[in-house]
Amino acid sequence: MNTTGLPEDLLDAALKTAAETLIQCLQTMPELQGAKVAIVGGMAVQKYLTGYRRTFDVDVLLFRPDRPIDYQLMRKELVTQFSGLFKERAEPLFFKYKPTDKLKNKRKPKRSYFVQVDIIPEYLPPYLPAQAMTLEDVGLGHLPFLDPLDLLAYKVHCSSMRSSLRKREQDAEDAVKLWKTYYGQAYVPLSEEQRDAIASGVDLMAEFSRDCHWRKWRLRQWVNL
């Protein structure tokens, strides 16, 4: 499910507001002090590859280095303590976005929209990013995006794991585009975690174009250096 009925011209502002508000609300929870946070998924891709593709929801990785997080309890706190901002509809969590009148800097009262926000638990990614920011260190107006090389490794891994062929192809295309844009297909040094994530996914990575077979061969060379 994606953003509900949101016009194209409001999409970027809605995603940014949803991400910022979610992080600010999480910062008020004492049990999350010391937790790490990073924006992943399509919103991170959109950050690093401007104009490449659109995304319609917000994916936020949240984890604690020292102990597990009770994600169900945290979601319940969000929808009870901040009931005017967050709603649950079955499994997804939604942020209630109200556009601002830019001329008057006031909320437009007529209509609000729901933006899906997914809190990614620590057991879903192939590894936890070393450079993730501590939750309380995230400042107002700053979004803690996952590093592009970690994002590339995540995308290769995810492309081999999804049940949806369309999503597998999108992950593969994202990974290749990040590689070409940021690294010129050069073999930049990889951490052990990045190497393992790419190696675990490259063989089953979806082939979305004719040259994908060659690019997968290049990725295999990269992780075997």
Please provide a written account of the structure:
The structure is a single chain. With 225 residues, the chain is of the alpha+beta class. It has seven helices and eight strands. It folds into two domains: 8-137, Beta Polymerase, domain 2 (2-Layer Sandwich); 148-223. Helix content is 41%, strand content 15%. Strands 3-4-7-2-1-8 form a six-stranded mixed sheet. A hairpin with a 4-residue loop joins strand 3 (86-88) and strand 4. Helix 4 runs antiparallel to helix 5 (165-183). The chain is globular and about 50 Å long. The N and C termini lie far apart (40 Å).
List keywords for this structure.
2 domains, Beta Polymerase, domain 2, six-stranded mixed β-sheet, 7 helices, alpha+beta, about 40% helix, globular, two-stranded antiparallel sheet, about 220 residues
Layout: helices, strands, pairs:
Elements: H1 8-26, E1 36-40, H2 41-48, E2 57-63, H3 71-81, E3 86-88, E4 93-97, E5 100-101, E6 106-107, E7 113-120, E8 133-134, H4 148-159, H5 165-183, H6 192-202, H7 212-223
Helix pairs in contact: 4-5, 4-6, 6-7
Number of domains: 2
Distance between the termini: 40 Å
Reading the helices and strands in chain order gives HEHEHEEEEEEHHHH
| Structure annotation, total helices | 7
Quick structural summary:
With 225 residues, the chain is α+β, with helices and mostly antiparallel strands. Helices cover 41% and strands 15% of the residues. The protein is globular, with a radius of gyration of 18 Å.
